[in-house]
Amino acid sequence: MRIFVLFCLACCSWSAQAQLAEADLTLQRLAQQLAVASYDEKSALISQMAQLPAERKKPLLEALASNSLYSRESDQRLFVIERFKPGERIQAFFYDESLLIESRRQKRDFDKIGINNAIRRTLSSELALMEVSSGSDQQRRLAAEQLLKSPQDIDASRLQALIAQESSPAVAEVLGLVAALQQLTSADSSQRLAAIKTLQRSLYPQVRVALVQHQGRLDASNPLQAGEYQLVQKTLASIDQLQQLNGYARDLYFGLSLGAVLLLAAIGLAITFGVMGVINMAHGEMIMLGAYTTYLVQQLMPAGSEVSLLVAIPAAFLVSGLVGVVIERSVIRHLYGRPLETLLATFGISLILQQAVRSIFGPLNREVATPEWMAGTFMLNPGLELTWNRLYIIIFSLLVLVLLAWVMKRTLFGLQMRAVTMNRPMASSMGIRSGWVDALTFGLGSGIAGIAGVALSQLTNVGPNLGQAYIIDSFMVVVFGGVGNLWGTLVAAMSLGVANKVIEPFAGAVLAKILLLVFIILFIQKRPRGLFALKGRAVEG
Amino acid sequence: MKKAVLTRASKLFAVTTLAAGISLANAEDTIKVGVLHSLSGTMAISETTLKDTVLMMVAEQNKKGGLLGKKLEPVVVDPASNWPLFAEKTRELLAKEGVDVIFGCWTSVSRKSVLPVIEELNGLLFYPVQYEGEESSRNVFYTGAAPNQQAIPAVDYLMKEVGVKRWVLAGTDYVYPRTTNKILESYLKSKGVDAADIMVNYTPFGHSDWQTIVSDIKGFGSAGKKTAVVSTVNGDANVPFYKELANQGISAEDIPVVAFSVGEEELSGFDTSPLVGHLAAWNYFQSADADINYDFIDQWHAYTGDDSRVTNDPMEATYIGFSMWAKAVEKAGSADVDKVRQAMYGMTVPNLTGGMATMNANHHLSKPVLIGEIQADGQFDIVWQTDGEIKGDAWTDFLPESKNIVADWTAPINCGNYNIVSKTCGSAVAAE
Question: Are B213 and A509 within 8 A, CB to CB?
């Protein structure tokens, strides 16, 4: 009986072996050489493998590119190992064999087939070549753009065949550029001239690099090359001109997005400091609590990380808002009209909150995942790619501002809030419970800081020190914009953001910040109440 | 009147000797190990781990019966990321607690603040973090990398193996990046790199808006020459920096970033899949394939009760420092600072990457240099390493002011900054 089973097993493996196509056998032979090859030999092996019509080359190269291909020392069998964790099963690549990992030490039985950046580039261009002929137009265009990075690695006749059968004009255009980049190094000068003409209006950074390199190869004083040299120079000049426009657009976008971050951070403070006049040093910690709430929400719903950010917005508002109300009722309400004591007390609260978070969550930063729809860039033209997350944050900050303005102007609570700030005794005698309005106002400001924390968790570290980085900036914006004025806060945040980003390229990040602070100090000397000063009786109070 | 002062002085003297006697009596029961790492404030993120490492090593040593038949007793203080407090806490550890050795500090500024106190009271400090060099104190052993054990080999790797011709030196604006970049700039120029091919950029601590800088780097890299970024950006600013790199689509194949302050722990705060292939240079990576390293990782997981905790280079430096100190105490037969110091020279213990670490007379270690590429799981894949161990150089040869300076704490030189030309000790003071 046992012999029979063994025989059957042998039969199965024999037939499985037989089914391996000829090409797959070659693929296997080449792949097994990878384990002992040097980095240069690996490059050569990969190019050979990519030429094979084998069915399994794509998953193999993908495993190699993602650094998860291993070779077993004892028999050189290849394994794909995503993670080396006890309790997980790993699968042999060409054989029907799987293994259970029992201990981390087993890793010593396997040699990782290491790759470096040069090989990674070869692999990604080979994979791009495979992908350029399959998938959606969008994916194929991305694959074609990948080819721009290393045009010399691609076989010219293969590329021409791809262009000939290409149906989408967008993909064909990019492939045409790849071909032109190849022809730049051709010995035939008419081909080179045609290539330069093709490249004329392209803004891809790789095109500019190739043209600069080509210009270096040409000799301007040689009459045979002078015409070509000038053509390259003209092309480069026109590209640079367009790129300069792109540069302005980019600086503006960077400035607006920095402004949006400043706005988000400052908007809550515009309520607590601007409207109520509380110098709230714990404002940054409200932002931090919001960011930690985002982290917790993501931990609670790991499956729905795409929507968890949306859930986190109300959650962060509630958490930070509640903490704000508690702080107001327990500490700040006893200190109204004593700014110095308020400052010290809230500074103490900020330290307490920081250390509390450090004790509960530990001193290490927490990972907040970025949902798919916020990652990456969108392309306005090939020379100008802007990041999605910043765009969402700009829109989000404006939404928050509009919502807040609506609450202040159009709701009963907003009316009471404004009444209490303008004339407390009068408001009280009209039957408004000014104590509760104070608490809720402070809670509102803190809650909005919490919302800012949700947005900031996408940009920076979620750690106990998160808030400290934003407290000075927030005060700067509120004071500059004019205390007690939401629109002033918007204008101040945006203009400070743009000014910072315009100065930064030539002054450096450190000096840009110093210049802005000096400017604000001078400005406050001239207009102590900021950009948009409130007029009338409220100012006297 | 004079007599009164004298009697008061003698009374005071009597009281202090008494106090010293009491602390001496205490010291005989145990050997005290001071731990001077910030447990609160900005640096807590990095330093808490090192405190745990020391405590783990102490517990391990006590399980083996302690040292010289005495138990080790850890004394943990919290200097709270506050530089002057580091000096105060050092004084407290040495004068009040009477510790025999201190493991501590992370930032250079904290070490500089401890220096006068530890020299005055003749204490012993093991400093476990890579730093800018240009220092060798009689009372400090530097178990992290000097610039020639991290920065220079990393640049060599990029130059020779990757073919980099254009360099961005990006750092946080304080002493370590500034000195390291000064050294690197003069090293690159000595290798024939044109000044126009070097871009230097500093950012404030905790810088969070990297849009402009990353896009500048992108622009600098599109000049037709292979470009790399050498990053001495510190701690918290790294996450937004890398996030921005990923967002603007700068992949390691185009412009690799090699970092000197980013290790496994810094990467544990975010998703590294867009960063695969960016580099770091250290003397240790958790992925090092050595039995002793697997033991260490198991021990760390068992100690913390969390098998997702990572290990990193400063932990290895702490491990080496502690094992060397323990061995030196046994060799000297005493925990006395001067005896231990003498026993340290030439001391060899295994490092965690499968080699041996040796303590040199300039108070710096000989260690291997490893280059790792970031993986999607937050670990590093070692792609290159030096043939053997590199001897740490306290005073770099690439700056004119320290070219002629050496440190040697053994006879006959016995000096931390000895000028080999004028043959004098302490004549030249390096830039700080």
Answer: yes
